[in-house]
Amino acid sequence: MSHRTWTLIDPVAPVAHQRASLAGELSRGIRSLGFLSNRKPNTAELQRTLANRISARYPKLRIAFFEKESSAAGAGEDIINSVMQEVELLVNGTGD
């Protein structure tokens, strides 16, 4: 199995000297973007709306959707492996 390095961006952390942004990552040539759903109400609608907006701006970007078994549990190894194989950047969010 190949190994990748992941950068975790804490959305509530204080602003760091170097900020990562979705627009910045996409402008650097990212070819694939994934959305991880936690299965809470409105998550799918929120993620699809965001994906449609991003697709309109970056039409060559491949977008994939992933879904956890439950909002109460972490993503299983099968989902993590799929994400690692299919996308370069992952958006994880809730629809609460």
Please, could you describe this protein's structure?
By secondary structure, this protein is α/β, with parallel strands linked by helices. It has a domain at 29-90. It is 32% helix and 18% strand. The protein is built from 3 helices and 3 strands; from the N terminus they run αβαβαβ. It has helices at 22-27, 43-57, 77-86; strands at residues 32-37, 62-67, 89-93. Strands 2-1-3 form a 3-stranded parallel beta sheet, sandwiched between helices. The mean pLDDT is 81.
Keywords:
96 residues, alpha/beta, 3-stranded parallel sheet, 18% strand, globular
Short characterization:
The protein has 96 residues and is of the alpha/beta class. The protein is 32% helix and 18% strand. Helix 2 links the parallel strand 1 (32-37) and strand 2.
